[in-house]
Amino acid sequence: MTETSTKTPGRGWQGAVLKLFGADDFELTVTRSEVVTDHYLRIGFSGGGLLSAKPVHPTLWVRLWFESDGKLHQRGYTLVDADPATDTFDIEFAIHDGAAARWAQGAQVGDTINATVMGSKFEFPEPAPAGWLLAGDTASLPAINSLLDAISASSTPTVPVTIWFEYQHESDKTLPLRTRDGDTVHWVAREREGTALVDAVRSAAFDAGDHFGWVALDSKSTRAVASIFKGDYKIGRKSVKSQAYWVEGRSFG
Ligand SMILES: Cc1cc2nc3c(=O)[nH]c(=O)nc-3n(C[C@H](O)[C@H](O)[C@H](O)COP(=O)(O)OP(=O)(O)OC[C@H]3O[C@@H](n4cnc5c(N)ncnc54)[C@H](O)[C@@H]3O)c2cc1C
Fold this sequence. Notes:
The protein has about 250 residues and is of the alpha/beta class. Helix content is about 20%, strand content about 35%.
């Protein structure tokens, strides 16, 4: 007789470390799914208490646990339009070949997924910068939009924002970027593993010591652009925030 394993997949050492540091877990439930483009989905969730327990800040992200190869893998995802009054939010998924992207493509209303909250932080800079320089891609589009919303709601809503946005598919250029009048967007096709965008940022350098820089791309490009912001643009170390959002050619997390 063949025995079927009913073992629940474990979270491995990452789960153990997060638990040790007291990270909180929530069960999210899918409430709707919307195709935004052929490579981008928006999924609605109710938060299982997440938004009563955790304050919302721009770029707020959670660690979602996806099953693949009999194990659970954590991946970072950003909350979109979080509404604490109803404990609901959306998450937007850039689609490629990965466990998280596959889960999003198959998600049905009523499906659940676990989220761990730990590590997300962003403090709006004080005093307000003279301008913002943002570098991102479809994975960081939700975070960029949350920054644009926060800037619009700040004491300096008309401060100029320049965005270098890396795209991989023509349809990415139709994605809803929440830019305002006066903002500048440089659309850069992903070429040479991200160096096209890095070169575009470098070639536009000016003395931007009074600006704030924010970067979230693949890991190599993130490091390169953060270093250009600090070196060529002369932005102070504390005024550059960078985080790698994914790794070219391999799983992240
Ligand atoms: C703080 C934080 C917030 C994030 N927020 C979001 C978000 O809101 N929406 C979102 O879509 N992503 C977001 N990401 C990125 C997301 O976590 C990664 O893209 C993740 O690797 C996806 O997991 P996966 O299981 O689908 O693919 P993986 O198993 O990690 O990777 C499988 C393959 O896909 C490739 N790959 C992974 N991500 C991408 C990508 N973005 N573009 C092209 N190829 C890729 C890898 O190089 C690898 O070859 C965030 C990451 C962080 C750290």
